[in-house]
TrEMBL record:
This is General secretion pathway protein F. Keywords: Calcium, Cell inner membrane, Cell membrane, Membrane, Metal-binding, Protein transport, Transmembrane, Transmembrane helix, Transport. PROSITE patterns: T2SP_F. The keyword Protein transport applies. The keyword Transport applies. It comes from the Bacteria. GO terms for cellular component: plasma membrane; type II protein secretion system complex. It is found in: Cell inner membrane. Component of the type II secretion system inner membrane complex required for the energy-dependent secretion of extracellular factors such as proteases and toxins from the periplasm. Belongs to the GSP F family.
Length: 426
């Protein structure tokens, strides 16, 4: 039998070549005690798979069709759905628990695949398990499906394989994925209510300007009276909305699509991201969330056994702001030249100063990973606090703006009515 290797060699032994061509079967069988057993095994045909189960003293109950076609579609097919982020977190957490309990990687992948629901996650885990059984490294097996397992995810696992603490690295990786996903979900959930409130407010004001104001103003025109200045302004806005509102919405939609396409250009995105960092509240929040993501990823990679320079490069990829990411290019170069990480980050001057101080303290104390985790936790707490306050202020601001717009429309209608009543009394 050939020895395991990081990547399969072209001069693989005959067993490995045959092993690659054997499809995988999912089975459900009964043991002597009547208990149901589930798992995955490799065989040339269903008949051979059933014979293998009987040799294992199991009675086959269900045996799936060969997974060869699904395996071919699992990696590289654009139509095959990728593993969802939530499923990836769960898979990582389960693998960490099983490996931490001493389960071999192949058996751990088999157990997680059996427990997963039928779909992309199970298909990919079965394919990864087959590669691992062929002698591939775990990270290299995951690399065949780059959409489901991002480069950063694979880099962390590769560091864990190198350090020999794959279970611990997977546990930290799962924690990092959970925190990043929690922050993202919280930000999205926090924006749902203000966005819905703005949409309702805009719809109410537009309906008043398009349907209510013109009908009422028609009644005033029969009196041939001079309208108040406020009423003239509202009538003018109403007429403009009726005549050009659709074209304004169309132009806004075109501008949005053009902006979205322009953001795909690196130079334009760099300029926009740099401007975002200068905004009073939004810029601070952007620095905090990118700093937290950077610090937590760097701590995960570095504590997993990856070299500092490689960890720094991997952490740089997680930053969403292109300006911060470009400034950190110089940081990577300085660290590669021997400069301390704290000095290089201070020279970049794009991440929160608190994080730089934490890095400096960690380098002095020899506890860089621990202090990076603490720095990330503080930045996440700062982001949560600032975003909560900002959103709580935004909601009443939208309500006040909507109330003010409705008040102006009502006053523009009431003022002519009061003037007509005064003229009638006189």
């Amino acid at each position: 039998m050939c020895a395991p290797a990081s990547l399969p060699s072209k001069k693989s032994c005959a067993w490995c070549v045959r092993r690659k061509t054997m499809p995988a079967f999912e089975y459900e069988a009964l043991d002597f005690g009547g208990k149901t057993k589930k798992g995955v095994l490799s065989a040339d045909s269903q008949r051979q798979a059933r014979q293998e189960l009987r040799r294992m003293h199991l009675t086959p109950v269900r045996l799936s069709a060969p997974r060869s076609e699904q395996k071919a579609g699992a990696f590289g097919s654009q139509k095959t759905p990728r593993v969802k982020p939530g499923q990836l977190v769960m898979i990582t957490r389960q693998l960490a628990a099983l490996l931490g309990a001493g389960t071999p990687l192949e058996e751990a992948l088999n157990a997680v695949a059996v427990q997963a629901e039928a779909g992309p996650a199970r298909t990919r885990l079965i394919a990864v398990r087959e590669r691992v059984m062929e002698g591939w490294r775990f990270a290299d097996a995951l690399a065949e499906d780059e959409k489901s397992f991002p480069a950063l995810y694979r880099a962390v696992i590769a560091a864990g394989e190198t350090s020999g603490d794959l279970a611990g690295v997977l546990d930290r990786l799962a924690a990092m994925l959970e925190k990043n996903r929690a922050i993202r979900n919280k930000a999205i959930a926090s924006l749902i209510y203000p966005a819905a409130l703005m949409a309702i407010a805009g719809g109410v004001v537009t309906a008043l300007m398009v349907f209510v104001v013109p009908k009422i103003i028609e009644q005033f025109n029969t009196f041939d009276a001079e309208l108040p200045f406020l009423t003239k302004i509202v009538v003018g806005l109403s007429n403009w909305t009726v005549s050009y509102g659709f074209f304004a919405l169309l132009a806004l939609a075109i501008a949005g699509v053009a902006f979205w396409q322009a953001m795909k250009q690196p130079s334009f995105k760099l300029a926009v991201d740099r401007y975002i960092l200068k905004l009073p509240v939004i810029g601070r929040l952007a620095r905090a969330i990118d700093g937290a993501r950077f610090a937590r990823t760097l701590a995960t990679l570095f504590s997993g056994g990856a070299p500092l320079l490689d960890s720094l490069i991997g952490s740089q990829r997680t930053i969403s702001n292109s300006y911060i990411r470009s400034r950190l290019d110089r940081t990577v170069s300085m660290v590669g030249e021997g400069t301390s990480l704290a000095a290089a980050l201070k020279r970049a001057d794009v991440l929160p100063p608190m994080l730089t101080h934490m890095v400096a303290a960690g380098e002095r104390a020899g506890a860089l990973s621990e202090l990076l985790d603490k720095g990330a936790a503080q930045l996440e707490e700062e982001f949560d606090t600032a975003s909560t306050v900002a959103l709580r202020l935004l909601e009443p601001a939208i309500i006040v703006a909507m109330g003010g717009a409705v008040l102006v429309i009502v006053l523009s209608i009431l003022l002519p009515i009061l003037r007509i009543n005064t003229l009638a009394v006189g």
